[in-house]
């Protein structure tokens, strides 16, 4: 199944310059308390963890990926997983839009006045 090829990318303590280039402080924030959550990502998500600790178990895999405060994480589109949150999470996040911008509106018909 293609889902097994999906990989979470974790960058530990990225430089402040990278966070600034990504404009992370302007991204929306999300948080959750400790617990287990079943999640499916319909779009790629990039997130920066301000607080928390999470183990993510991708569906169909015995392995997990662990990340938390100070980590920049990219979760691929199409991933189904269980988040096991051991320390309450506070993060900035951004979803990548997979849709293309809408086409420009059609031009009005030219009226030929003679």
TrEMBL record:
Domain of life: Eukaryota
Lineage, top ranks: Eukaryota, Viridiplantae, Streptophyta, Embryophyta, Tracheophyta
InterPro entries, per database record: RmlC-like_jellyroll (IPR014710), RmlC_Cupin_sf (IPR011051), UGlyAH_Cupin_dom (IPR008579)
Coiled coil: none
Region (Disordered): 94-114
Pro residues bias spans: 100-114
Residue ranges constituting the (S)-ureidoglycine aminohydrolase cupin domain according to the UniProt record: 23-93
SUPFAM superfamilies cross-referenced by the UniProt entry: RmlC-like cupins
Protein name, entry field: (S)-ureidoglycine aminohydrolase cupin domain-containing protein
Species per Swiss-Prot/TrEMBL record: Hibiscus sabdariffa (roselle)
């Amino acid at each position: 199944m293609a889902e097994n090829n999906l990989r979470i990318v974790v960058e530990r303590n990225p430089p402040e310059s990278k966070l600034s280039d990504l404009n992370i402080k302007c991204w929306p924030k999300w948080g959750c308390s400790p617990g287990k959550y079943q999640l499916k990502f319909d779009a790629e998500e990039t997130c920066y963890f301000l607080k928390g600790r999470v183990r993510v178990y991708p569906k169909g895999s015995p392995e997990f990926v662990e990340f938390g405060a100070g980590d920049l994480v990219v979760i691929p589109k199409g991933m189904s997983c269980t988040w096991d949150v051991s320390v309450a999470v506070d993060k900035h996040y951004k979803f990548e839009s997979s849709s293309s911008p809408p086409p420009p509106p059609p031009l009005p018909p030219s009226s030929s006045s003679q």
